[in-house]
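Case study B.
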Amino acid sequence: MIIVGMGGTLLTLWILSLLMSVLKKAFPLKKEGEGK
Amino acid sequence: MSEAILNGLNGLVAGFFNMHWSNPIMIVVGLILLYLGIKKDIEPVLLVPIGFGCILVNIPLAGLMDKDGFLRIIYDAGILTELFPLLIFVGIGAMTDFGPLLENPKIFLLGAAGQFGIFLTLALALALGFTKLQAVSIGIIGACDGPTAIYVTSKYAPELLGAVSVAAYCYMSLVPIIQPPIMRALTTKEERTINMGAVQKSVSKTTKLLFPLIVTILGGLIAPKGLPLLGTIMLGNFMKECGAVSRLTRASENEIANIVTLLLGISIGATMDGKVFLTSQTLIILILGFVAICLDTACGVLFGKLMKVLTGGKINPLIGAAGISAYPMSARVVQKEGQKYDKKNYLLMHAMGANTGGQVGSVMAAAVMLSVLKGMGII
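Model:
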């Protein structure tokens, strides 16, 4: 239970960090500013 | 007639004669909580109602926690239904800026490592003979997050609610005392002076808007039992980031959060009846809660050291200590500690990223734990 819990938490947040990195590349700050 | 007078007088002194030995002790505990909240400014918005509730419930024959007592009505309405911690979470989400975390998403991993103390303490509690559900509720003190601890404990081990809540809130406020010695013991002077530079602004509004949606959907699919916690904090954050419902955001941060905090505090205080609270079990829970937070800090710093190695020395391991959910206190502790060794080292925004990662991490850890227990058929 403890190993699955620790591993599950780490894995979920790792996946979230990857998704956020992809999102940052898909919606960068500069492009939105240029679009206005 | 004299009998009537005697019976009447009896009614006036019955409160004194029906005191259990634990009641005066718990009244003093309530007074100490009031002192800590008012004079020492330790989480006053919680310790004041908790302390007062504790005093109220330890005055005998008042019936405040009996079936129709007003404390029982509030407790049943908000604690047994888990509504109060969830409503507070909406406010917390509305007050949190995940920007520093999104600037450097790999700091999410520090938010995960900062929760390992929960699971290690859970193992320790099991070894000490607590049931699985009690051990989960004790371990969750390490989440350093009041609403999460209250949500899990009220659902799965309500008999421990008083001890767990008091431990969670008191230790959260003691983070500036608990963390620095552990941070110093686990890092070298050279590591503490690593300068991470300024946080570059690179997160668009769209990213900040999509973040709470993605966390809710993905986190909910992975750990559905934790969706009430995850969904409410992300609802608050989504309302904040979308900017279209500022009235609701303001109400969540202010009126709703304040009213619910008051009712939550009194309800928790109402569970601190001396006959139930003053046991060796409570003392063990307080000790284990302390252990949980120490382990969280240690695991966060050690993971920070690992990330330092993997990034070629770019990460200051001190920010690992901010991977717990004590927001924003832990980030300030890291900033202060870093500046002791280099006045020009500004770790605050990096530590804020880790701290908000810890907020998400603590909720995810609770969600994962509950879903694993559900999968095992324990809940």
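Residues 17-375 of chain B form one domain. The remaining cases will be described in the next quarterly update.
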